[in-house]
Design a protein that fits this description.
Elements lengths: L24 E6 L3 H12 L1 H8 L3 E7 L13 E3 L3 H4 L6 E4 L6 H11 L3 E4 L2 H17 L4 E2 L10 H8 L5 E7 L2 H13 L3 H10 L8 H4 L2 H15 L9 E2 L7 H9 L2 E12 L2 E12 L11 E8 L3 E8 L3 H21 L27 E11 L4 H11 L4 E6 L8 E8 L2 E2 H13 L3 E10 L5
Parallel strand pairs: 1-2, 1-4, 2-3, 4-5, 5-6, 8-10, 10-17
Antiparallel strand pairs: 7-9, 7-11, 9-10, 11-12, 13-15, 13-16, 13-17, 14-15
Helix pairs in contact: 1-12, 2-12, 4-5, 5-10, 7-8, 13-14
The structure holds nicotinamide-adenine-dinucleotide (NAD), L-homoserine and sodium ion (NA).
Nicotinamide-adenine-dinucleotide binds next to helix 1.
Pathway: Amino-acid biosynthesis; L-methionine biosynthesis via de novo pathway; L-homoserine from L-aspartate: step 3/3; Amino-acid biosynthesis; L-threonine biosynthesis; L-threonine from L-aspartate: step 3/5
Pfam family, one: ACT
Enzyme class: oxidoreductase
Amino acid sequence: MATPDSRDHTIIQLPEAISINLQAVRIGICGLGTVGSGTFNVLRENAGEIAARAQAPVLVVHVGARRDNPACDLTGVRVSRDIFAVATDPEVDVLVELIGGTTVARELIETAIRAGKHVVTANKALIAEFGNELFALAAEYNVAVRYEAAVAGGIPIIKALREGLAGNRIEWLAGIINGTGNFILSEMRDHGREFADVLAEAQALGYAEADPTFDVEGIDAAHKLVILASLAFGIPLQFSSVYTEGITGVTPQDLRYAEELGYRIKHLGIAKQGDRGVELRVHPTLIPADRLLANVNGVKNAVLVEGSAVGSTLYYGAGAGGKPTASAVVADLVDLARDLSAGQISRVPSLSFCHESLQDLPIVPMAEVETSWYLRMEADDRPGVLSRIATIFSDQGISIEALIQKAPQAGQTRVPLIVLTNRAPQGKVDIAVQQIEELDSVAGRVTRIRVEVLDG
Ligand SMILES: NC(=O)c1ccc[n+]([C@@H]2O[C@H](COP(=O)([O-])OP(=O)(O)OC[C@H]3O[C@@H](n4cnc5c(N)ncnc54)[C@H](O)[C@@H]3O)[C@@H](O)[C@H]2O)c1
Ligand SMILES: N[C@@H](CCO)C(=O)O
Ligand code: NA
């Protein structure tokens, strides 16, 4: 590490209390898009507080970017078009990877680790899919890989699970963990806006992934859920085990009917551990409208964690966006700077549990996962139809909590019928739905959305 006065770019005003003789932590940022530019600017704007907390100036010395970003004043900072020049720069202590994706980003991080650099990343796809390998490589080279920004943007949920809740057995967690998806559902519900129109706005605001199907098909939430589940239960990262359903099938009609029934539809990531193993699932979910999670709107995220000792705790804040995500990246940098000054970079294991203690618990098959269900169908409005449907449910041992028949829509002979069931395994519901879809008196497919009450 260099002393700040040995560099020509030390133009940041630091409080006098921070000794100028302290060694600076030298940062290389790769990727100067939404999060990269946010991180660069937060480090500049809050340099005094950051240095006071880190007990050392945290200085960006090298930026790797395809092009400059007008939002960032790069005067005095080395800039390379080749991001690998940052990963091998002997003057860089910590590489911040903010390019995204799992190919070049993986190679970049591995190069940095092999060059003895610590890494901070916001890349949930990379951690979820290749985190096991990256953490092992980092351990081999005695460097840290930090990823607070990878889950729920600015909310310090990784910190909470790795450290704050370390005294608990985590029973389950449920979260709104994709800002773009929550923004879309909120705008559709509150302002009747079109899905595609809101998605375009989320992209313009810098919330969406480079490929927005990751947001709307639930893949991004699945990446994040896998990370949360590993931290919560001490299991290796296993992206392929997550059941993933997005929000593209949620209609304005269902948002409205849910509301009428006293529920809201939210896209949730849910991880639960029980006697039969671990449930890992991402899907739209009806939750009672009076729950805190039901009232998390727009780009906000929230994660509800049920711990054996603490009970329920809830973490809320901005789930996407440049500055909020930068807040998490910079928090990792401050943490790392503190660890570096204490000479203890692996004080907290990457996945909270010691690597040797990670346990590959069985994943509960979806057919066995029990929830309540919202089922909507179009049925003939004539005697006997309701009792046929009710019999199909009772034959599968599924009890009906509510059955509502709506008025027919203009020009329609069939009526929308909504069934709310009590808790039942998905396998039973699959059979009942198939039998209902085969009835002549029911048209088309049955819309199915899970219902969770999220009781602590
Ligand atoms: N945007 C958010 O709100 C948010 C929140 C949390 C995490 N993330 C994650 O942060 C990462 C960055 O996201 P973003 O929204 O800032 O994306 P972005 O597209 O705004 O920025 C990425 C930048 O990296 C650059 N880049 C990509 N490949 C490069 C290469 N090979 N060489 C040089 N530059 C390259 C691009 O030109 C772009 O400027 C992603 O992993 C994303 O999942 C984003
Ligand atoms: N695309 C992501 C960014 C934050 O991880 C989201 O909308 O939540
Ligand atoms: Na976070």
